[in-house]
Amino acid sequence: MYYQQLNYFNYQFDDMELMQKFEEYILTNVNEIFTDAEFFTKKLRVTYTEARSVVNDTGSYRTTLQAIVNTLNMQANNKSKYKEMHESLILAVNLYETNTFQGLMNKLRKYLSELVQYGYQWNVVYYTNYFERSASIG
Fold this sequence. Notes:
Elements: E1 9-11, H1 16-29, E2 44-46, H2 48-55, H3 60-72, H4 83-96, H5 101-117, H6 122-134
């Protein structure tokens, strides 16, 4: 029997094997996206379909999560010393402002499009769209 490891998820299904595969993928491949999730008292609701989309190699949610991790590993093209801080705060805002995994995926996709729009200048994305919102997460 599998026991849930990531307590910031609220599963809406009983398939223990899927839950285990989902959590293993999160822990092994994209854990840095969820670092702040432990500090928030609310949980992200995850449906069976959403978990399958992460576990499946060609799932759209898996693609989104991998794209975020890829941006975390990119060099800042504008010589910003604060790239990591801005990224961390942006991810924290997105986690804080949603209660569902689908909502988080929508927010992360919006963030990815903002990054492209502003030429991968994390500081511009942060100060334009996340600075004021980050104050509320204290």
